[in-house]
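ok so heres the complex, two chains, lmk if somethin looks off
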Amino acid sequence: MRIPCPFCGDRDSHEFVYRGDAEPRRPNDDTGFYDYVYLRSNVAGPMQEHWYHAQGCRNWLVVTRDTCTHEIAGAVLAREAAR
Amino acid sequence: MTRLSIFSLAANALSGHKKWAPTWRDASPKASYDVVIIGGGGHGLATAYYLAKVHGIRNVAVVEKGWIGGGNVGRNTTIIRSNYGLPGNEPFYEHAMKLWEGLEQDFNYNAMVSQRGVLNLYHSDAQRDAFARRGNAMRLHGVDAELLDADAVRSMAPFLNFDNARFPIMGGLLQPRGGTARHDAVAWGYARGASDRGVDIIQNCEVTSFLRGADGRIIGVETSRGTIRAKKVGMAAAGNSSRIAAMADLRLPIESHVLQAFVSEALKPVIPGVITFGAGHFYISQSDKGGLVFGGDLDGYNSYASRGNLPVLEDVCESGMAIMPMIGRARLLRSWGGICDMTMDGSPIIDRAPVEGLYINAGWCYGGFKATPASGWCFAHLLATDQPHQVTAAYRLDRFATGHVIDEKGQGAQPNLH
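and the predicted structre for the whole thing:
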């Protein structure tokens, strides 16, 4: 897999650290924490996920990737995706 | 069905092997059953077998979207062991180990169970202490464990690289009763035993949704081969557990990840048992056919693709060359990937679902094969009695909400690290 890093360009996935599904949002109080920490949609198909370019620009990215084919549709900086 | 023995083998040999009967009935679905099990892998078939044999519930169907044994029971590295450290895990895996020991006589099928030993190598004082602790925990549960020093490891496996600068081998934790089994034969043996007792094994039958009663209870499944009603529905769908659960509007504490495994060309016997190099993410055994069967870590990203990528292949081969340089001369024959249902604490779930009528058997991570007999035994117990078996009492679905996680590796809620 090659990830199109918005800062560095097309790079091998080996340079990145995977964190997982980008969908869960940290809740403001205790009530949503179980959902946030443990429950996952575990999508079969296109999924937005966090990758960290540890051996590159050290940016957190939101990568859109198909979990059934490993095909990568695109990547944006996580701080821009959060806006 | 004919009992298999040396006499049946001789009789079939004398008749030119033309009179062998099919091992199990390839059934078509009936309109309703007492129990429908989703997933015709090792766990689903074992569940059906023990439901029929132990609990006398024979009006059972196993529905499989592909062919039986085509999923993870055909994609593992065939290792059986019960060398766990935590109280929630050890009695369960030892129950599995005891069932393995009598399995072939029990279901009258050759599963080639071979207790050739499982050796975990250690490379530092800290790792030795951790292994001593785990070995002691095993022995307190009545399980065999021996802590070996470097000389004892050297006498078992002189070909290892003992003087690696980063990971010198100081010894190992050995479970002599661990070993390997013929994975496909496990599926076939359970299928044969279940089919023989009246269980319908229905292949090419994909579940597309659940049937709900007026009170919301699950009363059956819609499949690609029509509607099947059931008093109880059990799911044993491994890597596809989240997709099945989603049909019942449930989200599970599970991520699906791909784990690769590899086999070399066949060689003369060179490796005595199973050897694991946990510090370097590599483990290996040799099949009876001679191939070196080995693997390492998950690829590390969510996947349903049943195939991995090259970086992990590289890592695994580098680790293998570091600890066992002699394998560099062997050529790689095949590689494959299996989809693992990784839970948030690395331990499985056998429990009733929050929806009435549905029962969950999931979250086996990459340890499902060794668990097969006990998973079937205990899931059958749950389906038959609505009570958890005593050795799976800790495998609750709600343990993540209540804080009773069983985190053998201590990684926290990070499924790709377990």
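quick notes: The two ends of chain B are 43 Å apart (CA to CA). thats all i got rn
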